[in-house]
């Protein structure tokens, strides 16, 4: 009895070792490719919200991390990428999120130039209804481009809403909650940036080559 | 019928994992919003099925009966993880749109079902072939359901093909009709259930038709004999 238990235990252990070993080998071979893919993806997104000719620094390697629960959706750390030309501040790309989507969180990245104008917005992740709320995705519709060039001033506060609420932004037929959430999130991001720009550009770089490996393992 | 022929018939039609055994419905219903998503999950599932069937068959003589299930589970989990890593590395966009459904292949009962019912008792070549046929049978349903829902919901076919097949595949996109308002019922989960029901009904009708066709000539013979006896 004990003998067969021992034997079975050993066999199980051997199988566990072999299968884990195979996974480990695959991981070693694929992880550089996966990291490269993720980096490409990030670069593509950053380039789409901050024009590449606005800056000469490597956006993904120049960032700071901030926590602002009231304006950036939740209490998690958010990354702010900084674009500079000849060392001069040009624009920021701020990660943000809103918990007010129709089905859960929507995470976004918002590009804001030094004058406070939106240079681009992209949705990073969402679970909105296919065919209705998913029009916030760039590959499905142009809606997200309607933020380009907009800014937030004392006077136009109430224009930062969907048309149904008296604002400037189109809602979708059959879906008001999703665009409303996105409009508010972008508005809050602009509010967050206002008055903080200088501090954000001066803050220590947390995406430099040294801290890269650390941030990638998150 | 040779073993290969039986296996093909079983996997593709008679014992189809999705239409007859109704296994792996969770990923099946959730992912088939578009043809390409269906194809992607189908390919991944087929790969895992072939791999796990082959491995299970390979080790079948060394695995004591009492601990076969945990061992099969380990083998399957390892294959799924490897497929997941490979997809993440080489088909990044597709991986993002299939998202959580790749790990869910682990829970696809079709896979452990085949390991237990067939691969653990048969030689490697048959086991691998069985995995291939079961996988193709499952994929066919995924593709068909995906195509139905995409066509009804978005009016297109092959949307997102470039994520799976590379940039050249962008030209595969067929727009059958253009609509401002998508047919939501087809895109959302209820559409998957209804579509699945229709597919099962269609298969049962076809089966009945085949049966009748097969029976028809016999009847003629019977009648002839009856008259002869009179």
UniProtKB/TrEMBL annotation, chain A:
Its EC number is 7.-.-.-. Its cofactor is FMN. Keywords: Cell inner membrane, Cell membrane, Electron transport, Flavoprotein, FMN, Membrane, Phosphoprotein, Translocase, Transmembrane, Transmembrane helix, Transport. It holds the Pfam family FMN_bind. The keyword Flavoprotein applies. Its main location: membrane. It is a single-pass membrane protein. The modification FMN phosphoryl threonine is found at residue 176. InterPro entries: FMN-bd, Ion_transpt_RnfG/RsxG. It is found in: Cell inner membrane. Part of a membrane-bound complex that couples electron transfer with translocation of ions across the membrane. NCBIfam families: PRK01908.1 (NF002519), rnfG (TIGR01947). Belongs to the RnfG family. The complex is composed of six subunits: RnfA, RnfB, RnfC, RnfD, RnfE and RnfG. This is Ion-translocating oxidoreductase complex subunit G. The lineage of its organism: Bacteria, Pseudomonadati, Pseudomonadota, Gammaproteobacteria, Alteromonadales.
From TrEMBL, chain B:
Keywords: Cell inner membrane, Cell membrane, Electron transport, Membrane, Translocase, Transmembrane, Transmembrane helix, Transport. It comes from the Bacteria. It holds the Pfam family Rnf-Nqr. Its main location: membrane. It is found in: Cell inner membrane; Endomembrane system. It is a multi-pass membrane protein. The chain crosses the membrane at residues 20-50, 71-92, 98-115, 127-148, 183-202. Its EC number is 7.-.-.-. The keyword Transport applies. Belongs to the NqrDE/RnfAE family. The complex is composed of six subunits: RnfA, RnfB, RnfC, RnfD, RnfE and RnfG. Part of a membrane-bound complex that couples electron transfer with translocation of ions across the membrane. HAMAP family: RsxE_RnfE. This is Ion-translocating oxidoreductase complex subunit E. The lineage of its organism: Bacteria, Pseudomonadati, Pseudomonadota, Gammaproteobacteria, Alteromonadales. The gene is rnfE.
């Amino acid at each position: 009895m004990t003998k067969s238990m021992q034997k079975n235990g050993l066999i199980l252990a051997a199988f566990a070792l072999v299968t884990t070993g195979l996974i480990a080998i695959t991981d070693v071979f694929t992880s550089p490719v996966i990291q490269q893919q993720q980096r490409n993806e990030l670069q593509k997104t950053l380039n789409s919200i901050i024009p590449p000719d606005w800056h000469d620094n490597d956006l993904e390697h120049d960032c700071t991390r901030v926590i602002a629960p009231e304006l950036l959706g939740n209490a998690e750390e958010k990354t702010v990428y900084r674009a500079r030309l000849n060392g001069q501040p040009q624009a920021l790309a701020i990660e943000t999120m809103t918990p007010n989507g129709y089905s859960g969180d929507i995470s976004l990245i918002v590009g804001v130039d030094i004058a406070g104008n939106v240079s681009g917005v992209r949705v990073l992740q969402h679970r909105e209804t296919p065919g209705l709320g998913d029009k916030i995705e760039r590959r499905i519709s142009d809606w997200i481009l309607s933020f380009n060039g907009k800014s937030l001033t004392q006077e136009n506060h109430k224009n930062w809403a969907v048309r149904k609420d008296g604002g400037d932004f189109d809602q979708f037929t059959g879906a008001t909650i999703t665009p409303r959430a996105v409009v508010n999130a972008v508005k809050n991001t602009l509010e967050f940036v206002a008055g903080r720009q200088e501090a954000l550009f001066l803050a220590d770089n947390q995406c430099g080559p040294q801290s890269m490996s650390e941030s990638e393992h998150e | 019928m040779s073993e290969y022929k039986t296996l093909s018939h079983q996997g593709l039609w008679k014992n189809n994992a999705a239409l007859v055994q109704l296994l792996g419905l969770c990923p099946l219903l959730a992912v088939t919003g578009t043809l390409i998503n269906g194809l992607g999950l189908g390919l991944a599932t087929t790969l895992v099925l072939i791999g796990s069937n082959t491995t299970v068959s390979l080790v079948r003589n060394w695995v004591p009966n009492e601990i076969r299930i945990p061992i099969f589970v380990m083998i399957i989990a390892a294959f799924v993880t490897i497929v997941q890593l490979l997809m993440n590395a080489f088909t990044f966009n597709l991986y993002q749109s299939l998202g959580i459904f790749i790990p869910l292949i682990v829970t696809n009962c079709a896979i452990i079902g085949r390991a237990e019912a067939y691969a653990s008792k048969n030689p490697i070549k048959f086991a691998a072939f069985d995995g291939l046929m079961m996988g193709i049978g499952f994929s066919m349903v995924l593709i068909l359901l995906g195509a139905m829902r995409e066509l009804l919901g978005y009016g297109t076919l092959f949307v997102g093909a470039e994520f799976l097949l590379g940039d050249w595949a962008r030209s595969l996109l067929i727009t059958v009709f253009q609509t401002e308002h998508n047919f939501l019922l087809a895109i959302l989960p209820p559409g998957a259930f209804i579509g699945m029901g229709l597919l099962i009904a269609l298969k049962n009708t076809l089966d009945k038709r085949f049966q009748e066709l097969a029976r028809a000539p016999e009847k003629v013979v019977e009648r002839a004999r009856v008259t002869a006896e009179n």
